Amino acid sequence: MSTASEETQRAGLLSEPQFWRLLRAKLAAQLGQNIILYTVLIVVVERTESSMQSTLLVLSMTLPSVILGVPAGLVVDWLPKRALLLMVGLVRAGVCLALLQYGASLRDIYLLVFLFAAVGQLQGPAESAGLPGLVGRGRLGSANAYLILVILAAQVAGMVIIAPAFLKTVGEDPLYVLSGVLLVLGGITYARTSGLGAPVDQEETPPPEVEAPRRIGLWAGLEVIRSDRTIYLAMVELTLAAFLMKSLVVLTPHYTRDILHLAPTNSVFIATPAAVGALMGLALVPLLAWFISPGRLVTAGLVVFIAGLVGLGYVYFAADAVQEHLRLNLSGLEDRLGISSVVSMTMLLAVPLGLAFTVVSVGARTVFNRRSPPELQGRVFATQSALADLVSVPPLLVVGAVADLAGVRMVLLVTAGLCALAAVAARLASPGQRRPTALLEGGIAREH
Q1: What range defines the domain where residue 48 resides?
Q2: Which of 141, 205, 222, 242 falls between 20 and 30 A from 234, CA-CA?
Q3: Per-residue pLDDT for 266 more than 80?
Q4: Residue 79 CB neighbour total at 10 angstroms
Q5: Does the pTM of the predicted model rise above 0.90?
Q6: What are the DSSP calls for 119-176, one per residue?
Q7: How many angstroms separate the CA atoms of 317 and 332, rounded?
Q8: What is the CATH number of the domain that holds 228?
Q9: How many structural domains are present in the chain?
Q10: 3-class SS at 339?
């Protein structure tokens, strides 16, 4: 396919009213989610000043995926996607409003966040599994890129602009109400997006001689992942990147306070440039896709992300090296903008972090959509999410405890190094061949 035809496909997506409606639904739902999660994170940090308490909050967001992720995928494959997304929006809005009454108690915050995340297990797989029916298989890469763009816009608006502004002025209660309203609007808009979850043809008809034993039920998604080397590697590398991102979310307020010597609410100095980098990643992914396959893009993105975390760990040395060897006047920014050279260096390092995570996310989602059978995509996405969260729970507990004892810098460096080793080990241990993978209802029988 030529570059011109790719651009035509991307433009065609934006000319379709139903795809625009999906983007609006995604924006409202993500705004509500980001506002509420950032709000409770800052509330917990300011009340406790403990990395371990922040970790417990992140675990409250993560454990529902471990417990309910795979069953959620089965539910998504069975039930209508639009009705399911409407229900998710309404229930999550109710949780936001419950925080108005019970938000004074840390225990109640953890329980309500757990419920918020539990219901949310249906949203991601339902949206991802419904996407091919809305846009077709040929435009999945572009559609996923636009959806990631909406996620980034919602992160910037919710976590960098709206939530910090409210917290510094009127407090957290109005944010709970605003999040609830946005989640209701998102659920209603999802329900009005016709074509979401419509039937889609498989890419090819499998020859009967390669059909594998039928696999029905919860674990069909795992069978798909295990049977295809490209999906397997994308799953592992996305899991590692997601764990590193969760660790960064836990550590960012403390990094801002302990390393940058700023208030935790000024974590925007990391979030904003990371969002800029993510936008750059969205612009680069279509270009890079002409030279690198989606699976290799995932690997490259993970390498850059790990390097960025190491840079944050050595930010003081990086700032000195840049000023000495590249002769960039970072210290001059302290006089002009009121920020130190270390803060400036942190902002520069955050840009490739955002870029890399976008590349990993878009590449992995494209691999899953293209290589998974349509009737099992809900289970594939849900299984990946559940496995990622299951693997991340024990290390996240260690991250919080060690950060309180050894400091944020040490945790960043150790986690980055261990994830690099895990990525190499997974690649060496990955399936040596791509088995035929066509699926009937839960079975594999299609060759890629």
Answers
A1: 9-196+208-429
A2: 205
A3: no
A4: 15
A5: no
A6: HHTTHHHHHHHHHHHHH-GGGHHHHHHHHHHHHHHHHIIIIIIIHHHHHHHT-SHHHH
A7: 17
A8: 1.20.1250.20
A9: 1
A10: coil
